[in-house]
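User: What would this chain look like folded?
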Amino acid sequence: MAKILVAASPEPRAIVERVLAGHELSCAETVGQAEQFLRERAFDLILCTIVFDESKLFDLLRLAKSRPEWGRIPFVAARVRPNILRSPSALKSAAFTCGALGAAAFLDIADYQVDPEREMRDAIEGLLAGHREEKPEHD
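Assistant: Here's the prediction, encoded as structure tokens.
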């Protein structure tokens, strides 16, 4: 079970909670709440939806990468509702910007066809597995 910071408003958060069922989730609705969680707890992954806190995804991503202890946490930006940000060029720009700012991935639920929530979970589990392998072991 991973410790995941979920940065999402209530409607997309419900989808994220289904996708990440079984993990320990800390849910923030604002950049300030997310920062407080980061100061208080250790996380294995940060997942932020694209319209978080009135479109402050990039603000949170910059914040998460601003401190070495937070910068090592994989940051995943996600579009979990296909009816949000429907312009292909806007999506492409968002994905590019996330990568340029250091995000581990930009996941779009619309990219998954058979079982979108399970397929998104599998992608996130893959990122978590890779992060666990990179973490140094402590005696």
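The chain has one domain: 3-128. If you want, I can go into more detail on any region.
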